[in-house]
């Protein structure tokens, strides 16, 4: 490569200059043998990698190394924005070669050689040109060019839909649960992108072995295998000992001891050994449809300050050069010449991408984040209704056991959700409903009977949220429509990072090439009777409120539950939306509204002919008017709706008219509706079930300010405290007395 800009030695464990010099010195010292091998022969005795294939992979390795050097050159004058390097991990080119080009792969952030090898192997003609294009694509990510083929300049990730590479951005090994889900879905979804015998591969570093993602994925892979739920998954751990503090043999012990997951080890700096081990592992996964882990010993070169000092003698580029020279396929000077040729090609590509445009507006940045096509969503609901009432009527009747829900009389919230899920099973063959104990009804009995109606499309999972959400993300990527259930908000907090970093960003990072449709059901919000204490009775939604693109639905009653569930399912199906469906657990079995026995909190289940007319669009509120509706506006959601309606009825008896705005959608908020209804009275009481700090009410107040509301506003919210057990919960949570006091204070102005 051309002369590199000076880089201070303190910046990296090994500098680009020293790495370059050591490669040249090491190669120059090598000597070819007397007997030369033919390109079609194994590159050395006892291996299957041929000389011709080794030469191809060496080009990918060289390109990867020079990409690292180019990234640092660009960074030296503030034009390169990502310098996480792959130096020392170039052996993963052999892993790419051992897979098929149509095997979906989730490569981690040291996978440049993997990317280059797959790109070159996919080209039937002009392999060298395709390798140059791959280098240019990777450099586009480094400089944040809008021509980056996967993210469009939004981040630097190794992804490419044409190469079946799924972009990864996560904590170490955080993408592995998704890989488990993709492998699960691959065997159960007729997705045209991938053949029936395809396998899923995911690479990760040894720093991820002790992280929740790897632990959950390895656990889940073995669990599915022992449950005879075959998943064709190959996990590849590239162990460069960057963890530092781990005792010798720890990574191998962790990976080798997983039940149901086959273990293989190879020296990842030895191209031939890596290829043979990867080919054998991939063939096993493809043949048996069972999970395996490949443990590769690598080295981290061009590391960060604080990394362990690398073993420079294990440089994989030197290892492959030695392999080729000792096979008589290259002379030392030919290797160095090829090294320089690739370097100049990569430098030329780096100079070319410098002038490419960057994202210039917020609109360009968010274009692929969360597309909203409300008309298509409405049409999807109409189509589902047509299937349920037309040709699918007999099937629907059969799945309901002959008694249709619209014939059953008024239903509770829980019953309506159960019927809505059953209808979804009847109208969407690709739907999957799962979670801890789902076949037994889940924690609150909402999914009771669904297993009998949906067969193996309804199933139980491991109890941890990481596995549940990961399974859903991968299944959605494979073309299924996942509807997982968590046991409560406390579980969401365990898996929140997956929703934030992986689920909500997939379309964003891939410019819409990949998506993960999802409707995540969670029994949520707090029970004023204090059932369960702080963990089981969590009322915080703060972790959901600032996730860009996320849809958060919160139906308060049966009247809205089925229409909103259908909207979420249609949005996931049509737009790839990631939806969180919050179900007020305290209201699951509530029947009455104003007085005992009135049954006014129940609602009849709509027949398919009514689905279109009862459509609940994302971001639209429901408005209740009591009395003249001219004196006060109450903005609320969930359990606050029932309490506010009861308070409003008492106010109406005293001559005050109230508008109760049920937000229904907590993200995006129905801003136009709440501002309009607030301006109509000039007095706004916000009734917020969540905490005063970080609660939904903060967003409502901000919307009012942005909407130029100049009247009086007051907020009633839960205290900034965990919800205690028993009657003490009522001192923390919002109650009708507090709502009444807030309303009277506003009306007195």
CATH C-level class of the largest domain is Alpha Beta
- SS-based class: alpha/beta
Cα separation of the termini: 76 Å
Range of helix content? 40-55%
How many H/I helical runs?
27
General description of the model:
- The protein has 749 residues and is α/β, with parallel strands linked by helices.
- It folds into three domains: 9-352, 3-Layer(aba) Sandwich (Rossmann fold), CATH 3.40.50.970; 374-611, Thiamin diphosphate (ThDP)-binding fold, Pyr/PP domains (Rossmann fold); 622-747, Rossmann fold (3-Layer(aba) Sandwich), CATH 3.40.50.920.
- Helices cover 42% and strands 12% of the residues.
- It contains 27 helices and 17 strands.
- A five-stranded parallel beta sheet has the order 1-2-3-5-4, with helices on both faces. Strands 12-14-13-16-17 form a five-stranded mixed beta sheet, with helices on both faces. Strands 9-11-10-15 form a four-stranded mixed beta sheet.
- Helix 16 links the parallel strand 6 and strand 7 (458-460).
- Helix 2 (51-75) runs parallel beside helix 5 (127-142) and helix 17 (465-477) runs parallel beside helix 18.
- The longest helix has 25 residues, at 51-75.
- The radius of gyration is 29 Å and the shape is elongated.
- It starts with 15 loop residues before the first helix and ends with a helix.
- Residues 1-12 have low confidence and may be disordered.
């Amino acid at each position: 490569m051309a002369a590199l800009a000076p880089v201070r030695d303190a910046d990296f464990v090994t500098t680009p200059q020293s790495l370059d010099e050591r490669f040249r010195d090491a190669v120059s010292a090598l000597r070819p043998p007397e007997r030369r091998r033919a390109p079609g022969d194994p590159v050395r005795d006892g291996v299957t990698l041929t000389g011709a294939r080794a030469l191809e992979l060496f080009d990918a390795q060289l390109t990867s190394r020079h990409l690292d050097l180019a990234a640092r050159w660009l960074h030296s004058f503030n034009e390169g924005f990502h310098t996480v390097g792959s130096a020392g991990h170039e052996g993963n080119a052999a892993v790419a070669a051992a897979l098929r080009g149509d095997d979906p792969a989730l490569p981690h952030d040291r996978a440049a050689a993997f990317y280059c090898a797959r790109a070159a192997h996919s080209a039937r003609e002009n392999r060298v040109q395709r390798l140059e294009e791959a280098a240019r694509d990777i450099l586009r990510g480094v400089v944040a060019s809008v021509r980056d083929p996967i993210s469009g300049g939004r981040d630097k990730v190794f992804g490419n839909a044409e190469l079946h590479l799924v972009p990864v951005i996560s904590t170490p090994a955080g993408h592995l649960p998704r890989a488990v889900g993709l492998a699960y879905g691959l065997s159960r979804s007729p997705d045209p992108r991938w053949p029936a015998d395809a396998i899923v591969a995911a690479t990760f570093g040894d720093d991820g072995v002790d992280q929740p993602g790897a632990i959950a994925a390895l656990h889940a892979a073995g669990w599915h295998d022992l449950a005879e739920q075959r998943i064709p998954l190959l996990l590849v751990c590239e162990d460069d000992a960057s963890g530092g503090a781990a005792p010798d043999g720890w990574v191998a012990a962790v990976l080798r001891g997983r039940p149901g997951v086959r273990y293989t080890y190879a020296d990842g700096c030895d191209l031939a050994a890596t290829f043979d081990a990867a080919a054998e592992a991939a063939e096993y996964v493809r043949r048996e449809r069972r999970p395996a882990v490949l443990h590769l010993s690598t080295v981290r070169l061009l590391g960060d300050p604080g990394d362990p000092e690398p073993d420079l003698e294990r440089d994989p580029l030197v290892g492959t050069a030695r392999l080729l020279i000792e096979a008589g396929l290259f002379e030392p000077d030919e290797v160095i010449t090829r090294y320089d040729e690739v370097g100049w090609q990569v430098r030329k590509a780096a100079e070319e991408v410098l002038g490419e445009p960057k994202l210039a507006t917020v609109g360009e940045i968010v274009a692929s984040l969360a597309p909203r096509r409300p008309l298509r969503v409405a049409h999807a609901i109409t189509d589902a209704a047509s299937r349920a009432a037309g040709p699918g009527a007999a099937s629907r009747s059969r799945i309901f056991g002959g008694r249709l829900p619209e014939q059953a009389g008024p239903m509770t919230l829980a019953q309506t959700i159960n019927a809505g899920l059953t209808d979804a099973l009847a109208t969407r063959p690709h739907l999957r409903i799962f979670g801890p104990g789902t076949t037994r009804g889940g924690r609150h009995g909402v999914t009771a009977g669904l297993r009998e109606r949906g067969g193996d499309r309804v199933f139980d999972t491991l109890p941890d949220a990481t596995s549940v959400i990961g399974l859903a993300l991968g299944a959605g990527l494979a073309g299924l429509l996942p509807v997982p259930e968590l046991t409560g908000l406390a579980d969401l907090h365990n898996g929140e990072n997956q929703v934030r970093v992986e689920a909500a960003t997939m379309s964003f990072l891939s410019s819409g090439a990949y998506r993960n449709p999802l409707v995540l059901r969670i029994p949520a919000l707090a029970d004023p009777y204090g059932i369960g204490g702080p963990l089981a009775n969590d009322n915080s939604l703060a972790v959901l409120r600032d996730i860009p693109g996320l849809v958060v639905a919160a139906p308060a009653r049966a009247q809205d539950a089925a229409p909103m569930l259908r909207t979420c399912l249609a949005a996931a199906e049509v737009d790839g939306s990631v939806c969180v469906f919050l179900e007020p657990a305290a209201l699951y079995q509530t029947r009455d509204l104003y007085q005992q026995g009135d049954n006014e909190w129940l609602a009849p289940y709509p027949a398919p002919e009514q689905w279109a007319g009862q459509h609940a669009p994302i971001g639209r509120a429901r408005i209740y008017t009591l009395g003249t509706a001219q004196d006060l506006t109450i903005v609320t959601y969930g359990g606050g709706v029932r309490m506010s309606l009861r308070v409003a009825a008492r106010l109406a008896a005293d001559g005050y008219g109230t508008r109760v705005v049920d937000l229904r959608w907590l993200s995006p908020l129905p801003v136009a509706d709440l501002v309009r209804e607030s301006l109509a009275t000039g007095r706004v009481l916000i009734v917020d079930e969540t905490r005063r700090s970080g609660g939904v009410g903060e967003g409502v107040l901000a919307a009012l300010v942005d909407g130029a509301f100049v009247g009086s506003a007051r907020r009633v919210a839960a205290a900034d405290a965990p919800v205690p057990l028993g009657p003490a919960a009522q001192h923390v949570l919002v109650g009708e007395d507090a709502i009444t006091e807030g309303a009277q204070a506003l009306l007195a102005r």
